[in-house]
Structure formats: structure tokens, C-alpha cells
What does this fold into?
Amino acid sequence: MSKNRWVALGAIGAIAVGLVAVVERPAPGTSSPAPPDRHGRPLAFELNQGQTDPQVRFLARGQGYRAFVTPTGLTLSVDGQQALRFTPLNASPDPALTAFAPLPGKVNYLKRADPAGWLMDVPTFAQARAHDVYPGVDLVYYGADGQLEYDFVVAPGADPGAIRVAVAGGKPLALNDRGDLVIGSVVQRRPVAYQEAARGRRSVDAAYVLGPGNSFGLRLGAYDPSRPLVIDPVIAYSTYLGGSMGPLGDDEGDAIATDAAGNAYVTGRTASTDFPATAGLDTAIGGTDDAFVTKLSPAGAVLWSTYLGGTGFEQGYGIAYAATGTAVYVTGQTTSGDFPTPGGFDTTLGGAQDAFVTKLNAASGAVLWSTYLGGNVDDTGFGVAADSSGNALITGTTSSTTGLAAGGYDLTLTGASDAFVAKVLAAGGFAFATYVGGDGADTGSAIDIDGGGNAYVTGTADDPINFPLTSAFDPTLNGPSDAFVVSVSGAGALRYGSFLGGDGAETGFGIAVDAAGVAYVTGQTDSATGFPVTGGSDTTLGGAQDAFVTKISATPAIVWSTYFGGSGTDAGYAIDLDANGDPYIAGYTDSATGFPLAAAVDSTFVGGSEAFAAKLQAATSALLWSTFIGGDGDDQGYGIALTGTAAHVTGFTQSATGFPLVSAADSTLGGFSDGFVTKLAPDTTPPVCKIVGTTAGPPKQMFVSVQDTVGLAMITNVSVTNGTVFVPAFTVGTTSPIVVTATKSNQSLPTTWSFQAVDVDGNVKTCQ
It folds into this structure.
């Protein structure tokens, strides 16, 4: 099966997307692979069975237009008034036109009085394809949610320079400042070109070129025509999450959790009076801002959604799924004296603001119980985790001198504010709460639990006096503030405490712990020196501030620690682990250059900041994949949660265009900002490998070639038919294919050789 270049010259509509990619070209008689679905419902192409002009083979209907596909091109009727004709020049006069991907919907035409003249059960398809419009070039029509798109698919060896399209019936063609093609009221977005390379995705320059006779072509920069495009990870779904009405129409997703079935639970803040609240506790906003909780299916559909708040201000900062009891815990802050507290152990607002903990039924969104959690001054819950018995452990920050701490190892507030750890039983009873901090201002940002029910907290501290430094791997506050890592038992006793930082300022934002108590911390640092980048893959601060990821053993001791960032400001806000212990992080970056990308879904920095997600290898901190998530505005990622190796990311976006929308429950930016949820699924494509040669020796040698989606692979074993195992001696290179040499002395050359290649996603390929 040969590799093709897929050149998408644009989408017709108010929001148009163009890109250049490489896909598999189907064998004759088979359907072509569908282009990445950036929207939702596929556009339907009707087979012409007499409902329109006989020259038309397929008809599609979108909002405000109709599209007619003929062998010689495309005619677009806009608002029933303007007809634009797109005709490939110097092309085959009668290419074969076929349809792929049948849709379940049928179309009926019952216009005549006599039923004999009715057209019934007209079939519809998701894609129409004109074959060999130019030698080795197909033209594919498709779309979603009313948007029409068309791509040129160019085989290796074919000339993309042959592509030229004439446009008749409209105003003269023009290019705007962004490089978009403007045809009166129709805008065709500038094409974006990229290819996967050994060091990640490489952009390829692409632009429209205007020609005579109101025509345009495509100009590509240098590219490798033999390299396939592989999107690793693949966007399974991506959607806005928000409303549009209210003083600001301002929404954001702050935390996300998942269950074993792949459902996602999101909390955050909304100021929108039309936030999609469908069920649960409250379907109307109560104050200026409410917390919200939303459940999405594995495919991205909203299953239930609820406001959570009173007449003041609320924000949900942390969320956790409890497998025991199939419930969801939410924590955050409230200023409302009438915050809902059914079944709560504390039903009175203690200070100007309290933390809250609410337990909801995961299936329906119904509140099981809800309580304030606070003392006499101000309290906020930032993180929550559920243990194996279904109890909730919460961390946050408090300035309360009374009314909060009880039963823990530290019952005295020693600074302006302390972090805290509190435990609430599954049935809603209070277990304990302890201060965590020293004489300065301390904040607990995130919490997780190991297999023994012990809690691990990260946050920020700015004073070493009286800070709980026990079994510390870093007992010194090195700069104005450090991140910290503290472990507290399930009974409230201190297990260990340590700073984590360098000569500058650090903040710990996220923590994830495996069953054995190995902790991974992410956050932000501006320390150019002194930060413990032991064994890390990046040992240099790249910009004003970098994200960081640190692995800490159960002992505790630093296993490895690495910077993560580019030329600007970067922060890691959340972290989670897959079953192999590999950490996934989410955050934001404004680094227009130098940000570490690999196998990226989106490698183009567009807005003022981009959300990002990345996967690292647990053993070495090596980058496995990393991608931007964003559009033309500011985007930030605040939460990440895993189901298997599928990563769900939430945050906020101000991008009205360019944000990746795939199977979106909400495809429109509603207000000033929206929350978002993007699910990144793992690459399931095995590496490509083959034996390229052998030698008789001695020593006996075998040469193999391995090419993974990102140019990285591991050889797990090389074996022969008699069971002898050859230990390969090789170095993973920076170019693909990788050539591996396996040797064995004093062994007769076998007839059959075989080996296994395993890529970075665990996909196995046996090669002979």
C-alpha cells in the first residue's frame, strides 16, 4: 500500500480550515480513510437520482448554501443568489466519481401529486471522490456540521504544482493578511502543512498562489514526499464547554476526573446564565459565578450537567471519581451563606469564604451530601482525591485560626495561611483536618493517594521556620518560595515533608502517586540554578519560567527531575499516571519557540498562549509526545485525567477560531471565554519494520530497519527458529528509519530470523 500526500485546500464556510497531511491511499475499490473530523455530524452527499441537473453526481446542503459535485468540479450556490464554480484547470475531463462511507439517513422527494413521480430512499454518503483529476491526484469532498471541505490527495511522485483551480461567478480572488483566500463573502482559510519527523512534527510552508483567469494554486515549501503523517495522539473528541449569556459569559474548566468506562467529569466556574445545565442539583445560576459539574460520555456527549452554588461566588477547583459507590467528589470555594449543604456536617459559612465538599451520584448528578469545610476566616479547597474505601481527602489553603483543624498532626495555624489536609468519610462524616505549613504563607494545590490510603500534597511555601520537614530530600528553602511535597497518613499523621526548588521561586500545582507511593509533581519554576534537574531530559531553564516534572521515590528521594518549556513562560498545572506509571501533564505556554513538541496534534503556536498536554516516560523522563491545544486566542490547560492511555484535558479558551473541534457537543465559543474538554487517544498503529540484510560472519549479524510514528522505537528481542535470543546492540537515532544490528558469535546462520519491535505507545510488531 503506497503512501499519499493529502493536500487540503480549504473549507467553504464561515469557519474554514485547510491543512496538508499524509494519509494512506486506498487500494482500488476500497474507501479512503476519512480526514480528521474536526467537527461533529458529517455532511451528507446525496446521490443524484433525478432531483437536480443530470450533470450533477452528488448534492450536499449546508446552512445557507447548496453544493453540486460534477466530474469537472464543484458549484456552490450561496444563499440562493450567488453561484461559485470551482474548476480544476488542465485536469481530466471525466474522472471517475465515487462515494464512500454510506450514512444511515435517506432523502425523500415528494413534490408531485402523483406518487409515481416521488423519489424515495435516496442514499447519502459522508464522502465523494473524483479519481485521478490529475495524474496521481484525487479530489475528495467531505465535511461536518454543515461545513464543506475539499482536499487534493497527491500520491508520491505526483506533482502538487499541477493543481490549479479556477473560480467563476464571484468577485476577483484576493488574499487577506492571514493568507486566507477571499471570494466575496466566502473565505477559504490558508492551508497549514506539516509532517511528522524524528524530533516531532515539522511544519511545511504552504500558501495560496493567485494566477491568471481568477485562479489559484498551492505553493509548498520543502518536504519529504515519502514520509507519512501520523497523528499521535489522535483527538477522539474536543469541545467547548460553556454558555454565552450573563455579564461576561465567562466559563472555565478547572479540574477533570475519569472513570474506568471512559466518562469524564469536569468542574470549574461559570458566569453564564445559559450554561448547559441539564440535570442534577440546580439548572439555574444562583450568584455572579457558580461552580459547575458536567459529565461527558467517552464520545464527548454531555450526559448531565449542573450548576453548584448559592447567591454568592463559587468555583470548583478539584474533582475526583470514587469507584466505591460510583460517586464524584467536588471541592472549591464559596462565599454564599445559602450554599446547598444537604447532609453536611457543617451547614454554616464560617468566614468570608469557605471551602466546600460535595458528593454527587456519578450516574445522575444528584447530590448525595454537601458540606462547608472551613473555620472562622477564609478557606479554599483546591484538590480532592478518593481512597479505596470511598472516603475523600481534600487539600487547600486556610487562614482560619479556629473551626477547621481537629484530629490531625498539627492543630495550630503558624503563619498568615497554611495548607491543610482534611478527610471526609464516604457517608459524609468528618474524620480529621490538619494544618500543613510553617510561619509564612502556604498553599496546598493538589492531592493524591497511594494504595495504602496515604495522602500526598504539593503546593507552595515561603518560610522554612516550623515547616514540617521530616525525611526531607530537600530541607532548605532556596529562594523566595519553593514547591513542597508532604505526605500524611490516612489517620492524619505526618509521614514526610520536603521542599522542592532552586534559587528562584517555585510553585507545585499538580501531584500524582502510584500504588507504591512513588510521586510525580509538576508546577512552575524560574530557578536558572539550584533546581534539582537530576537525571532529567532538560537541564536548562528555557525562558522566564518553565514547567517542571519531578519523580520522587517512596523513600523519599528524587529519582529524576526535569525542566519542561520553551523560550517564554510555561507552567505545568496538572498531572496523572497511566497503568505503566508514565506521567501525563497539562498546562499552558506562551513560548512561541523552543517548546518541546513531539508527535503533536497541533504544532502551531497561534494565540497569546496555548494549552498543552504531554506524556513522559516514567523511567527516564524522555518525552513520548507533546502537543499544543488551542486556537487564535488565549488557551490554558488546568486539568488532566487518564482512562487507560486516553488523556482528557480541560481548561479555558478564548479562541473563537482555530480551536480543535472534533465530535463537539458545543462547537461555538459562547462568551468571553469557554471551558473546553479535549480527549487525546493513544496511537494504536504498530511500527513498520523489516530485515534488510544478514552476514555470515563471524560474528553473525542481522540488520533491521524500524520506523515508528515519531521515529522512535525499542527492539525487545531478536530470535531465531531454534530459540536462540540475540541481544541487539543499537542506538536510537534521530532519523528514521532506525537501523539495528544484532550479533551472535559461533552460531551457524539460521534460515529464519525474526524480531519484535515495540514503539513508545506499546504497539508490538513481529518482523521477519
Notes: Confidence is low (pLDDT under 50) at residues 1-40, 195-201, 227-232, 716-749. The two ends are 18 Å apart (CA to CA). The longest strand covers residues 119-134.
